[in-house]
Structure prediction request, 285 residues.
Amino acid sequence: MLKQIKPERTIFQFDSLLEMAQWSANTPREWTTKSSVAEREHSWDLSAGYDGAVELARSGWEDGVGKVSALISSLPTGQRAERTYSLGGDYPDVARAVSGDPFNMVRRGNAHKPRQTMTICVNVCCSSGTSAQRMANFAAAMVSIVDRLENRGVRVELIGCAVIATDNRSRASIAWTIKSAGDPLDLSAVAFGLGHPAMFRRLVFGAWERTPRALQSRAYGRVVPMQEQDVLNLPDDALCIDGLQAGFTGHGTGSLQETVSFAESQINAASIRATGEPIAELEEL
Prediction:
């Protein structure tokens, strides 16, 4: 875990949602409010509860895999990158490793070209009126984008972030890794890390409740756009997007294709801010 505690900006950053949950279990609550563990209707957290959210962070959201897989089946995945085997690569081929083959690492893309790494940081905050279906749609859209990028040989690191601020501009951010650049795309981790309301309304709320007491807000949904400084050690060309908070919240589900277009526009806008150029022909990847 990394942390920064300053009067104007507090940051707690974790390697995973499970590490965040373990930290919360061992850290006294600073806030007097306890929305992270309060009884809520089914739509608030899909009846997961706090303990259920911890278990989902540990084992993944299998139902979510089915939901996201069904959603992304109609979305483009792009041209599959050439699959080769080497002494080093992106992830192991278990069968080759067990057989003793030294060329047991899978490499996606052209092995003779330098590999590009892209860090995408997503602000997961959203209003209390955001439906679980809309969150699942956004997770599916991000899975589609990450899959298309990696099929073109781009290694994607995916980070979640949630920021809350007071009237006097003091702010706290909670950040965690959803996918490391060298890891294959894990649908259960992304489905829960971006698409389950309990991820935000239980685990993130629980972490917020352990930030300095001065940051407490009665309305947990009173959040702000993220800044690059809200996540520690981000590369200069990281793409930071505000996800569902950025004008796409409210009641209703929204169509999947609308959500995909919305996510793509955010990614391209972030790329222009970071590098001066959009991601080339993202819709054609």
In short: Residues 71 and 140 are 6 Å apart (CA to CA). The chain has one domain: 2-80+114-284. Strands lie at 2-5, 9-14, 83-86, 91-92, 105-108, 116-123, 154-165, 171-179, 239-241. Residues 132-151 form the longest helix (20 residues).
